[in-house]
Structures are given as structure tokens and as C-alpha cells.
Design goal:
The chain is α+β, with helices and mostly antiparallel strands and about 90 residues long. It has two helices and three strands. It has a three-stranded antiparallel beta sheet. The longest helix has 24 residues, at about 5-25. The protein is elongated and about 70 Å long.
Length: about 90
């Protein structure tokens, strides 16, 4: 009788893990519904200070066709070019 609850728990854990694994693999992510980068948080208050962007890979595509490493690099570049480049989408440019 003691093995019965263990089997139920094992079965439930396996079902949950299987669901999580397969839903992550087959589900397409809709990046158009994500909010645009909030560039104000990456712009330093002192104009002479250089922004220190994190070394995180989360690609951002800009209107000039350039893929930036993450939204911080995009925001800094956008500020340097006086907002002539615009946010297109999250992910690599096509």
C-alpha cells in the first residue's frame, strides 16, 4: 500500500514536466505583443557619462536593419543618432 502514493506523485510530476517541456517547444512566441524598450532607464543622467550595458544576449532589431545585442545597446545607439533609428522588434533582424 505504501508504493501507491509514490506512484501517483511520480505520475503527476512526470505529466507536469512533460506539459511544460512540450508547451515551451511548440508554442510560438508573439514578440509584437511585448512592450517597446523603455530607453529612459538606460540613458545616464550625466551626458558625459557612458552607459554601461550588461553583457546579456537578448537581440533587438532596429529600423536600420541592425541587430543589437540587447535593448540597452539599442537605446544607447538610438540616443547617439538623435532618435533616427526606431525599434522594430525583439529578435534578430531578417
Amino acid at each position: 500500500m505504501a508504493a501507491f502514493p509514490h506512484r501517483i506523485i511520480f505520475f503527476l510530476v512526470c505529466c507536469t514536466l512533460t506539459h511544460v517541456a512540450f508547451s515551451g517547444i511548440f508554442k510560438k512566441r508573439d514578440f509584437t505583443r511585448w512592450p517597446k524598450p523603455r530607453c529612459k532607464m538606460y540613458i545616464p543622467l550625466d551626458p558625459d557619462y557612458n552607459a554601461d550595458c550588461p553583457n546579456v544576449t537578448a537581440p533587438v532589431c532596429a529600423s536600420n536593419g541592425h541587430t543589437f545585442q540587447n535593448e540597452c545597446f539599442f537605446c544607447v545607439e538610438q540616443r547617439e543618432f538623435h532618435y533616427h533609428i526606431k525599434f522594430e522588434k525583439y529578435g534578430k533582424c531578417d
